[in-house]
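Researcher: We plan to redesign the surface later, but first we want a full-length starting point. Tokens attached.
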């Protein structure tokens, strides 16, 4: 099939490269000429493990191309995917659909024959109806049908998720869209992923409901972690105890500093706004979003407490700045709120991240960036683990202790064992686990 993907950001680029790897002919279109030039030169605009090799392989095979020319690329297309951004709208928190509607209009105007327009961007319920109205108004002479095909990719493992998905959701209100979308995903039939065909509106809501539920699990275990700290329980054992129940499951029950990234914050907010507009408020999701926002800054208070109640004129070293490992995504990362709160309290804050330094520099101009974990902690009054990159799991802790001005470690991801840290002489604080006294030397 000939597929066009409009938008070469995270979703569009991963999707386009993966579709090409299925054997389809794919053109990724973006208005950013600089981005397209870099992609043609093999330079990825995002960090995603394996993406550069996937793009290179399929470009070399002639299945994947990049362009700014939508009109030229759309000739003969069978399916056009809309994968443009839907950020939170300033002022009210609704999803900003400006780019989606603009892309739909431009696709219709450039179309030379019948095709299917599939929305892969995360959009509120009813967006497909408006996209259908736009394309029909723009080109009443052509048969252009509209489908919904939300993505469920995890940053850091997106390629594996795309090729071996838990499920594929296709919202199609007409047989033509259903047939075309089924053909797009036919190469995955050997992997036998569940392919769920439903209405467009149901498909759109599935995406938001899934993200809201996962965000709720994260926020739930974070609040349980707070309770564990007060009563002397261990949140990791609580999570294991409830996660072994198949009705609950173990995923997304890892206590930490709160969720961030490109999806959960904006999607929970957009779902709340949609529900309010339809006089069907989602009180649980409203609370989840509010608690998560408060939690990030509360992590700074945890650091301050570990430093004796004040960080004024102290140096705090943050290891990990991105919202999760294996990505360079800084959007709504907990580190942003933590750095701001620590700076407000008078601390000098340093940071190091294996992949997120460039974005961190733009978002946190006062943060002192270091070139390694060890240079970051040298002379610092406390080390704070914010993102659980693998390289932080295997630090030379004796070296870390020697470099620190004070042996204080605040582990917001629970990557070390309290008994080990106490034995090594660290004043160690983690999330939802009892602190142990420092072993006598």
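Model: Full-length starting sequence:
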């Amino acid at each position: 099939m000939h597929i066009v993907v409009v938008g070469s950001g995270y979703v569009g680029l991963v999707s386009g490269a993966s579709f090409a790897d299925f054997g389809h002919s794919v053109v990724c279109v973006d208005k950013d000429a600089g981005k397209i030039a870099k992609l043609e030169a093999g330079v990825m605009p995002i960090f995603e493990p394996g993406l550069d090799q996937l793009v290179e392989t399929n470009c070399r095979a002639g299945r994947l191309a990049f362009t700014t020319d939508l009109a030229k690329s759309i000739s003969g297309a069978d399916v056009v995917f809309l994968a443009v951004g839907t950020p939170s709208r300033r002022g009210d928190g609704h999803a900003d659909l400006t780019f989606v509607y603009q892309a739909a209009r431009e696709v219709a105007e450039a179309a030379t024959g019948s095709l299917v327009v599939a929305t892969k961007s995360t959009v509120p319920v009813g967006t497909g109806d408006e996209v259908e109205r736009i394309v029909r108004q723009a080109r009443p002479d052509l048969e252009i049908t509209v489908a919904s095909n939300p993505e469920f990719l995890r940053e850091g493992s997106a390629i594996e998720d795309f090729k071996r998905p838990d499920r594929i959701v296709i919202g199609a209100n007409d047989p033509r869209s259903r047939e075309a979308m089924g053909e797009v995903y036919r190469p995955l039939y050997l992997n036998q992923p569940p392919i769920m065909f439903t209405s467009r509106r149901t498909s759109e809501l599935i995406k938001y409901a899934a993200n809201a539920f996962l965000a709720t699990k994260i926020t739930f275990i974070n609040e349980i972690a707070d309770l564990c700290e007060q009563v002397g329980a261990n949140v990791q054992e609580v999570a294991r105890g409830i996660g072994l129940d198949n009705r609950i499951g173990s995923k997304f029950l890892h206590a930490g500093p709160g969720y961030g990234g490109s999806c959960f914050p904006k999607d929970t907010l957009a779902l709340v706004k949609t529900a309010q507009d339809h006089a069907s408020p989602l009180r649980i999701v409203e609370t989840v979003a509010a608690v998560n926002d408060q939690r990030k800054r509360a992590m700074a208070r945890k650091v301050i407490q570990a430093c004796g109640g004040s960080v004024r004129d102290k140096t705090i070293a943050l290891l990990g700045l991105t919202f999760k490992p294996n990505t360079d995504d800084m959007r709504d990362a907990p580190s942003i709120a933590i750095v701001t709160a620590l700076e407000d309290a008078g601390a000098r804050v340093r940071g190091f991240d294996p992949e997120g330094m460039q974005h961190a520099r733009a978002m946190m101009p006062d943060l002192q960036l270091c070139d390694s974990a060890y240079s970051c902690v040298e002379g610092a009054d406390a080390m704070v683990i914010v993102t659980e990159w693998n390289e932080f799991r295997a630090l030379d802790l004796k070296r870390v202790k020697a470099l620190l001005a004070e042996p204080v470690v605040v582990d917001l991801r629970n990557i070390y064992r309290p008994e080990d840290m106490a034995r090594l002489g660290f004043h160690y604080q983690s999330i939802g686990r009892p602190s142990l006294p420092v072993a006598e030397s």
